[in-house]
């Protein structure tokens, strides 16, 4: 049915634009309340497509148009909505505020207000930093010194062994600090002998 209407509205195929059916076409984009969705939202009014086409309410600053109203349709709400159709100057400030709260849960100021989440993030970050500092202190107190392979002499010996077996011939090995001085000192000792 919708494709037939769209064919009728196509100005290229028929050469005219039928404006009388415009409201029906716009209503076709609003999702219909199916039995499953209607059972989920109760008697709340569907007012638009929403963020992703689901019948859900969520306060978002980047997309402030939920698919359904926030509050359910009670007789008081229906009476106020009927009064809304008249002159807005006759509505009191409290009625205007309640009309807003029927459709929306929060204002933009309430959505953008700080909610204390930063305190929790900082707290958990400091907790994990303290745990890591305690683990570091435990490791430092448990082991008296670094392994013997961390000493400068052992690192130089490792480097010379890797050079002797031609390890990493293209990119080369990491040369630890002090190798050049050690090689010069050994050459001087070999020349003296």
Question: What is the fold's blueprint, element by element?
Answer:
Elements (H helix, E strand, L loop, with lengths): L1 H8 L1 H4 L7 H7 L6 H7 L33 H10 L8 H11 L4 H5 L4 H26 L9 H13 L14 H14 L1
Short structural summary:
With 193 residues, this protein is mainly alpha-helical. It has helices at 2-9, 11-14, 22-28, 35-41, 75-84, 93-103, 108-112, 117-142, 152-164, 179-192. Pfam families: COX4.
Please give the CATH class of the largest domain: Mainly Alpha
Largest sheet: none
What's the pLDDT, averaged over the residues? 79
Shape: rod-shaped
Total number of helical segments? 10
CATH fourth-tier homologous superfamily of the largest domain: Cytochrome c oxidase subunit IV
Question: Helicity range of the residues?
Answer: 40-55%
Uncertain runs are 1-20
CATH topology of the largest domain: Cytochrome C Oxidase, Chain D
- The ordered H/E elements are HHHHHHHHHH
Label the structural class. Answer: mainly alpha
Radius of gyration using CA atoms only: 38 Å
Strand-residue proportion: under 5%
What's the β-strand tally?
Answer: 0
Q: Do you know the CATH architecture of the largest domain?
A: Orthogonal Bundle
In whole angstroms, how far apart are the ends?
A: 104 Å
Subcellular location: Mitochondrion inner membrane
Keywords: Membrane, Mitochondrion, Mitochondrion inner membrane, Oxidoreductase, Transit peptide, Transmembrane, Transmembrane helix
Main location: mitochondrion
InterPro entries: Cyt_c_oxidase_su4, Cyt_c_oxidase_su4_fam, Cyt_c_oxidase_su4_sf
């Amino acid at each position: 049915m919708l494709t037939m209407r769209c064919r009728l509205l196509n100005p290229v195929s028929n050469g005219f634009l039928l404006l009388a059916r415009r409201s029906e076409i716009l209503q076709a984009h609003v999702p219909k309340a199916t039995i499953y969705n209607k059972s989920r939202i109760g008697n709340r009014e569907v007012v638009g497509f929403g963020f992703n086409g689901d019948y859900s309410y969520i306060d978002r600053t980047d997309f402030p148009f939920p698919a359904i109203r926030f509050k359910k349709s009670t007789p008081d709400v229906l009476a106020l909505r009927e009064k809304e159709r008249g002159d807005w100057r006759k509505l009191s400030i409290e009625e205007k505020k309640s009309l807003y709260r029927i459709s929306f849960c929060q204002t933009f100021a309430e959505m953008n207000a700080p909610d204390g989440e930063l305190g929790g993030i900082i707290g958990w970050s400091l907790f994990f930093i303290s745990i890591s500092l305690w683990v570091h202190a435990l490791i430092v107190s448990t082991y008296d010194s670094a392994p013997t392979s961390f000493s400068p002499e052992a690192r130089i010996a490792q480097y010379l062994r890797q050079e002797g077996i031609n390890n990493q011939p293209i990119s080369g090995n990491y040369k630890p600090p002090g190798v050049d001085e050690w090689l010069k000192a050994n050459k001087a000792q070999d020349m003296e002998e």
